[in-house]
Queue: 4 jobs
Job 1
Amino acid sequence: EVMAAIQATYWPADATLLGLMRNGRVATDRDLDYSIHATFATCAKLLGSLKDEFVKRGAAVKYFKVAMAKVVEQGSGNGGGSGKKIKVGRYAMVRIVRKFGDFDTGPDFNCIYMDDVRGPSFFTHKNVLTVLPKEIFPLRKCLMYNKSVACPGDGYKFLETLAPRYDGCMVYPHCLGDPLYSHRDCLTPHPKQDLATFVESTKLIDQCGYVSLAKHWKEEAKCRQTFVPTCDDKRGLCFVQPFKDR
């Protein structure tokens, strides 16, 4: 509803995209991540309009922030420009009071600059302005809780631009547990299920024409031997892949 109100093109990104490509649900993340189409000139205003739209729809917004970045000014058409750095909007963080779990959460929106003369670009987590792989467009569909939403044409290629944030075996969920309760260590756990069921559900998404990680199953088959689930006795959580700080 919010995106329709501001007439924005948007699609899931980061760990939100990863969860949808796995088997159609958000997992292993404490928030929702979206890319939103804009230009260098319009991004800040577009992001700034989000808070009121969420409040209008009854969201208890606890925190809202629009982050800025600096880019070298571009000229029209030929890539020329003044060479000076200008401030542009980068991303918006919306935090909404959560009714369960042990922290508040909400969506993050990261601008895709459609007018970059090199091609559509965005800022990575390391604040590096990066041109999107050509395989991202045209957008395709992802399955999100049994609803179709726009997604990158090749979600895997998008996630690769965020390395090393998403390295290892992306076919597999990072951790298992109760998906209705979030922990700071495990973020949002993936539902407990055997590996065969998980793989088959991923393949089904792919067969129905949605973006999924199924085609990477064979090339990442070595993960079955490489990553063996280990359990954290303290919280009873099973991790398929270790976190960076563990």
Job 2
Amino acid sequence: MTTSSEESSSLSSKTAKSLGLPRNSTQSALRFALERDSKSSLESRSLVVLLYMLLLLVWIAMNLGLIGANAGSGRQVSEQFYTNFHMFEFAGLSCLVCVEAFIIVYTRMLDWDSPLQLALLGVNVVSSFCALVIFVIDPHRFDVPAHYLEYFIQILVGSANLIFVFSAKPGGTLYRFRRVETAIVVVGVAMSILQLGIYSNIIPTDASHEKNAHFLEFSNEAMNGLFALVFAAATFSSLRAQIAEHNTRLHELAYGKRDSIDIV
């Protein structure tokens, strides 16, 4: 009867043979397999982050376009492209919040033991889609409550960026500039609160309160997108560096120094 240790030894020998290693290099073969699996995981994560970066570029461009459209008269927006204008606004935010939540979870930045982080992500996703749904049902009737809900979401989205800052590892670029990044997040949240005050007419302005609130809104969204883009680029660079390290160790395990390499 074959024991489990014999089966493991046989499997390791087969693994070593398939990798082109000597038969007695079972330990190296197992290390090689672990390194290869770790590299594959990192490559998948880096691809997701890269796609996220492309989405952020689209997001920034969309908000710059909305700023340009908002420069027209309020009557022009209301009569010519009211629905399309606001659909970009609400649908764009819903998509970004959903993707951002996925990225935070997939790249393992979310602390599952933190009720605050879990609640923040959950409220972001639910609230953004709620604003989109009520606007689609009746754009004119639910325009105002949808905007209030959206501006509330922006405050939460800005706060969610703190997750990016505090998840930075010591020694990295984001960690070194965490104070500057925290200041940027605080400014963004302050802008969100200000636009809510302008839209509700608590803070009176000379021009249309909705138009002025939109200028702040889209500028803030573009800034949040830029912040997330910088973070994503730094994360992508870190992942590629880790992949390069795995490639080096794989090469050493396959062609030399097999007995001196340990998995990090």
Job 3
Amino acid sequence: RRVHGPQDLRVTRRRGLIMFTHIPARSLFTSQPSPYLFGNGPNANASVNWLRSIFHFNFAEWNGGRSNFGVLRVLNDDLVQPDRGFGTHPHRDMEIVTYVVDGFLTHQDSMGSAETLGRGCIQYMSAGTGVQHSERNEDNSHPCRFIQSWVLPRARGTPPKYGSLVRSPTVRDEWEHLVADILDTSSSAPVRVNQDVNFFVGLLSSEKLFSVRASRQAYVLLIEGTVTVQGTKLQAHDAAIATGPLDLQFHSPEGQAHIMIVEMASA
């Protein structure tokens, strides 16, 4: 569980203000908890833990980094081994967005929802007054990787709800706007949450611009591939933060980069 300090971060300044910061994966905490914590049996392979989770913010046993980025409270990059998962557990007062990267993730909850989703799909849940759910990789042979984000809600105590978006990602060289604020009537994003936040996903094979407006900020995650942003090379699992106004220049030197951007108001 390698953990590095601030010396690993590369920053870009404008007039003394930090506009862009590269967060290499090696600076993040990797958790490998006991399989018994969520109702799993012993690891099938002694050398491979049931779960490897990269925490972008303080979470569970880790309290040595950032607690949040604006309204983004949690971003965990999870790899769950075959026939393993998170047994039934509670949530409340949180907007939860889960993006499946590889494999198949099965969700069940106390509202009666039950669904299995594959690569590129999103499951989302407004926990509100309270909900219990489980998430499992029920495949017997292939791991499941997913990105789970928790967003602080605009209001507490709302009715819980569950939804999903079924899609198949392809190389589009476009930013797909997948998640938006439920109050944003100008957006056509298919997933809506109770907060001023936007999720974009792109599969880039060349160059692409993403503009962060004034009084806004963005958290960038490179899910797969390599990409150069503002002259800085990012590897898979790396992240970056950007403060507007700033035009982020993405270039994919190897022909394909899988990127998620979470955009929101500046803190």
Job 4
Amino acid sequence: VDSKMAAGCCGVKKQKLSSCSSSSTSSNNSNENHCKDVTRANGFSGCPGGRNMVVNSEMCCFCFDVLYCHLYGYQPPRSPRFTNDPYPLFVTWKIGRDKRLRGCIGTFSAMNLHSGLREYTLTSALKDSRFPPMTREELPRLFCSVSLLTNFEDVGDYLDWEVGVHGIRIEFINEKGSKRTATYLPEVAKEQGWDHIQTIDSLLRKGGYKPPITNDFRKTIKLTRYHSEKMTLSYSEYLAHRQHHHYQNGIAHPLPPYNHYS
């Protein structure tokens, strides 16, 4: 399986890409999106709340740096200071006071965070097939979320997961005999007010399944549940964070800095 195969939290999209929004339209291009064993390298057997979080605000700042530099034609930012351990990851962009989805793409294959966040910052901002590429004018209204996926568990019962706690990834055989996959990050079902069945059925539709959905068919689904560590930062919070680093480090070039890393 391609180590950079991209996925999203609601099904399969063109060019092996998909997005976070529950209202997105999925294409029917094939995509296997296997949860490789490497994705479990940073998994934990307990609840994520019982240990120190890996995700932090600096990761969101780095994503803003990468996007800012791309949109303004600066050199890409240097390598950041946070850990470069491999994780499956998603980068989500929302915009405006109502925080409408603006892009969400990630990968189930564990990637080193420095290169993974660079790649999926721009992929989610510029190549989410439901949206036009982001522009400079949108930057001040953006919110960036970084999600690191952990604790992957294959379960035998498609109902064996908790709304608001687990992300889920389903694999099923469609009416044409093709293997399909789709996923939602942990927050999606809760934000939409869905129960287990509604979430599963929505995922099946996003994965391109068109016939009526029966309980017998739901029982054929292979389901993997997982946890997610998530951090969100607004553009104004990003600027404040970078301003602090400017004064602290004596950096003279304009905000946002794109070479402040040591």
